[in-house]
Amino acid sequence: MLDAALAPGGNALDAAATPSAAGGVRPCTIEDIPAVARLFRATFTDRLKAGGRPLEVLLRRELFEHPWRDPDLPSLVFAGPDGAVSGFIAVRPLRLLFDGAPVSAAVGGTLMVDKSIGNPVMGARLLRSYLNGVQDLSLSESANEISQVMWEKLGGRTEAAYSMEWLRVIKPAGLALASLTRRFRMAALLRPFAGVFDWCAARVRANPLRIDATFDEGSDVDAEDLVDALLALSLPYRLRPDWDRDSLLWFVAQASEKERYGPLVCRVVRDRKGGLAGAYLYCVRPGGVAFVLDIFAAPKSAERVVDDLFADAKRRGAVAIRGRVQPEFADLLLRRRAVFLHASSMVVHARRGDLFAPIHGGEALITGLAGESWSALIGGLFI
Amino acid sequence: MLNSEIETRVRAFIDENFIFAEEDAGLDGAASLLDAGLVDSTGILELVTFLESDFAIQVADADIVPENLDTIDAIVAYVASRRGASASVAA
């Protein structure tokens, strides 16, 4: 049975998956989707909205139509003695290359248990079963405080450099209003006043948050052109996804369904000679806080790319921009007046010690499209 | 290893890591650690790691159930059985 065969490095999933009398962990099957969806709805109530997409459709696509789906790396459910699903962890296979050599990895997330059952071993067993899977590298970029401690108890490490979010304010009053409106809808009545404040502030030359919205070195591109750029720009990373055109197109398509953050914008930035300087993709809508999934830059082009991003977000009416810190851009973002905040933690569990070197050295591409932020479960709205 | 020795070490670990009030010390061997809120999902993993390292046993995931880990008595019985199983295999 699954749980009984989990010596580190062993292939736990070769074993049969019959839950014990006390319940147990087994691979998630397509028949479990309605139960997993029910659990998700009970756990993440803030992501539900009338008019949203059916959660079952999304789960089926992300878990069973994933381009790197691997029967040896299934998502897992905790099933009680009666077979009822009371816990779940999403396991998304990730094909990585480390200095050109393949590495088996899996991103674990959406760990949830039925709290009404009051069985604290469920979450522990789900996480332990996942970490004892066949992959060499396990990671999550969405660990909350409890999950983070659980990962650490199981030998995982928190990667502080990847556990921060940056925030760059564009319109201070607009940002304050956007935050307020999330709690009190009536606060939207203050919009004209916020607009006047920010209009005036933008014209003060000494304003340290001023952004030159005329800076425009990039162009909007479709997913196909973005993918061409990303395939080239991801090559310098020592640890990076083994993307091909089809798989990367699939990840970008998932990332385009984040209704809470706004429509996805893909841009490619060129240098003065027309060469590829960088690319980025982010969700943005007027009056909202833009959400950056990834920034890529060719050597010595980071400033050009980030400045284009800021200017583009301002032109589109965002009140601020945020994204997960990528270590290679941290210094530049600080110089560009971004503030860093703790976000959900990036936790990593590796069977091979050498895999930590590129992560600690900021030479790993393991977040955003490479991690789990592409998932529509993050930023999407469901029924 | 005698069960009393196992119990002493388990109690010491629980006292040190999960008991924060003086009056909770000297826990009844049959008292539920889970119901008392002394051990949560993080604590379970901590406890399992302790058992594996301190008693040189392998705790299978299927064994991570309240029946084995919810009380000091249950933990002692589980460790004794695992150590017995290991000894049998070694012999």
From TrEMBL, chain A:
Source domain of life is: Bacteria
The protein's name is Uncharacterized protein
UniProtKB/TrEMBL annotation, chain B:
Coiled-coil residues? none
Cite the Carrier domain residue spans from the record.
4-83
Domain of life where this protein originates? Bacteria
- Give the residue spans that cross the bilayer: none
Entry protein name = Acyl carrier protein
